[in-house]
Amino acid sequence: MLFIWAFDPQKNPKDSLQMIKEIKFWADRFKAKVQPVCVLTDSILEIDPNLDTKNYREYVNRMVAKYLSLTSSKSFLPAKILSSSSPSRRKKALVLSEYAKQNEADIIFINSHERSAWRPLRLGGFCQALIELTESPMVVLNPEVQHSKRISTVLFPTDFDRASKTALSHIVPWIQKLKAKLLLFSRVEVSIYYMGSTSAMPSFVDADYFIHRMEDVRKGQAHKWKKRLTSSKIENDAIIQKEKKSLANDIVNVAKQQKADLIALVNVRQPRAERFLGSTARDVLVTSPCPVLILRP
Questions:
Q1: I need a labelling partner for 82 at 20 to 30 A (CA). Which of 45, 74, 246, 259 fits?
Q2: CATH superfamily of 1-145
Q3: Which pTM value belongs to this model?
Q4: CA contacts within 13 A on the Cβ side of 90
Q5: What digits encode the pLDDT tens for the residues 125-142?
Q6: Which helix or strand (DSSP H or E) is residue 39 part of?
């Protein structure tokens, strides 16, 4: 197996060290090789006019070697420097995405942006573009997350659609290898149903019947998925609950309550919408208490 570390030499060293430890955990479990990759553009040379490409490559290699000296892992390969003709974050993400595809990378690991009071839900342009463009699974760490010491519970938010079913089939071998419990989470939205109006006032229907009916449907779907997971010898459980706050908030709260070690999210690319990452996925990524695995169905 091959893992790619999207390495940024300008990233906060504390974040990079957490990522090194996270990747080491995964590499040891899956006996994978890890390729640190940095995308170089001409704009980086503006930081120091005395830096040329050769010197910068040496600088990146020294930075990677310094981090690796703090670990005992032998899984890491020498750093790979890629070139982008444009300083655009999206262009750089495309270069890395194509490299991952050509080399059949199994997972890409990346840090999200630091949060701030002005931008509390900032994911980072390069990270967001890479999530939108790549076909490879990704593990994302926000700056508040500590590296994994174990992965015993994986939270899988789903509405039991076809995309989730496909993504589930991809994650099952990893869950088996990790010997982790898979926790299905499905939220039933609370809706007010408008049923026409009179000249005096609009008419609404009590939604309790529809909510209870949807809960029963989701429980039935969860039961079928649980049977399949059990037949694959995966410990599992399911939580079906009514909408409380935003979907992202509900996912993060369940992850905290259940002490999940990993959240697995399905990222579906919509036609003509490649430039946009759903707000739910973005908010989960920047507020999650644990690493997040992004899956493409």
A1: 74
A2: HUPs (3.40.50.620)
A3: 0.85
A4: 6
A5: 788 889 888 999 999 998
A6: strand 33-40
